[in-house]
Design goal:
The protein has 466 residues and is an alpha/beta fold. Helix content is 41%, strand content 18%. It binds pyridoxal-5'-phosphate.
Length: 466
Amino acid sequence: MSADTPIENPHRRVPSVDALLQQMPEETARWGHQQLTAALREILADIRTQISRGELPSTELNAIRNRVNAELADSNRASLKPVINLTGTVLHTNLGRASLPQEALDAVVAVSAAPSNLEFDLETGGRGDRETHIEALVCELTGAEAATAVNNNAAAVLLVLNTLAMHREVPVSRGELVEIGGSFRIPEVMQRANCTLVEIGATNRTHLKDYQNAINSNTSLLMKVHTSNYQVEGFTHAVPEAELAVLAHDHQLPLVIDLGSGSLVDFASLGLPAEPTAAQAIAQGADIITFSGDKLLGGPQAGLIAGRKDLIQQIKNNPLKRALRLDKMTLAALAAVLKLYRDPDSLLQRLPTLRQLTRPQAEIAAQAQRLLPALSAALSGRYAVTIADCCSQIGSGALPLETLPSTALRLTALSGADAEIRQLAETLRQLPRPVIGRLHQGALWLDLRCLEQESEFLEQLGGLTL
Ligand SMILES: *Cc1c(COP(=O)(O)O)cnc(C)c1O
């Protein structure tokens, strides 16, 4: 280097934010001035730091343009997005439970994009009640006199207890002090509802006389909780709902049943494990029942409360109701799903939850055969793919011991290394539409029971980089 060549200060090559902004009209239109400016400032600061460390990062316009576009695209990508559920658990709480039918999606869009008659009576022009949109349907499908709905079944139980049992006692069998995932425990909910739990019976056996002995002048109601996510087996006894109803009514007490899932159709008639229906519980004498909207019902997250008109009115009048009420999107989706139940013949095809739960294994196995060649090709060299029988679960704590025969694509690493199969599970989770399988005994199982997006699944395989 000759003495008269000036040594260029590399910091001088770093463009200014203003100069970059002037040369990025397209980016300004796409991302907006504020967001683009902030991103460019960060990139330039990073470039200066690199230069100070003696590195030579590119300061070319195109390099910076590509980087800012990539970074902004990344930070603007939705965090909450659809995935492909191949876990084998149909109602997977961590994957959002029930998928909604098209009828519900259309209803949500229609009432969300414009004002609606949510609480407006179109006949009188006066104020309406948001529950008119679902109450009659719930009554029709359960046989109850009246109904209301809140944010989820946990809220339903809280609201019912707070309304009907505040400062009073509620006897519950020790066999039914349920904990649902996500820290919902009956004893704790009772405490928050401001009522006193009176534990009766034993873990495995509770008799009618246990309820009888617990009743006193401060008893508010009798309660039964469906042990949805576990079963007490062996030497057991629980009091049937109908008997408990007679006892409650002899003492002028309401019988409240938390059904958990609470189906609206007879599961046994669909070839599925039996589950108490909401209508059965009402017919057996329950004065109030509560159940989830997004478990076996197959609808949006909601907690349905149905039963005696006077009690439902008290529940609606509780100030807490306002804090727990449903919004218009959920009401629209719920009403659309409930309407599907009016035509049991088309229900199984139209409602994704029941469609997936009743999907014949032969159909799942045929799908596995169709997918095998493409998946084997995409994974060849590192993984083997076989077709294997497996068992799907219903999920959401519903019918925990019952499984449904299904078929999976079973992926194993040719090297046999556990790390390799975990790596594959991660790669699949990072696809544009993540594919979630189940790791079991050193293999990645893709249970195809819920695969309704077959072509999308196949298209993504092309983009797999192992
Ligand atoms: C699932 C369940 C709940 C909670 O319902 P969410 O809708 O999840 O709030 C309450 N009780 C029982 C028995 C359940 O199974």
